[in-house]
Design brief:
The chain is an alpha+beta fold. The protein has a single domain, classed as 2-Layer Sandwich (YaeB-like fold). The chain has four helices and four strands; from the N terminus they run βαααβββα. It has a four-stranded mixed sheet. The two termini are 25 Å apart.
């Protein structure tokens, strides 16, 4: 049987998800789509509880050395790292795929994660 990991979202990732839901609901005026997107995102993120290393490490430094992985979900990229000692997956960002990913990565706080 595979080891199960606890999957947690950082406040930064939660804020990004909330901003995306608000944008889809209030700017694009499609709240049903926002709800469906949020449900799909939650479902995909929850799968990280088993074999979270199945998605590739980033190819850029310093994120590769830190152990950041990226998982595509529809038109977004979910960034996360695995704390093997605590058996926890930390989702640190959810970024629209057409955004400048390098700048988005620079915005990700890597310190002060709640355990």
């Amino acid at each position: 049987m595979s080891t199960r990991y606890l999957v947690k979202l950082t406040p930064h990732a939660v804020a990004q998800i909330q901003e995306t839901i608000a944008y889809i609901s209030k700017v694009l005026l499609v709240p049903d789509t926002a709800r469906l997107w949020a449900d799909r995102l939650e479902k995909e993120i929850s799968t990280l509880d088993i074999m979270p290393a199945r998605f590739p490490l980033l190819d850029r430094e310093p994120w590769r050395s830190i152990g950041y992985h990226k998982m595509p979900v529809q038109n977004f990229i979910v960034y996360y790292f695995i704390d093997e000692e605590a058996k926890t997956v930390w989702v640190t960002a959810v970024v629209y795929a057409r955004r400048d990913q390098l700048n988005a990565l620079k915005d990700i706080p890597t310190q002060n994660l709640e355990s």
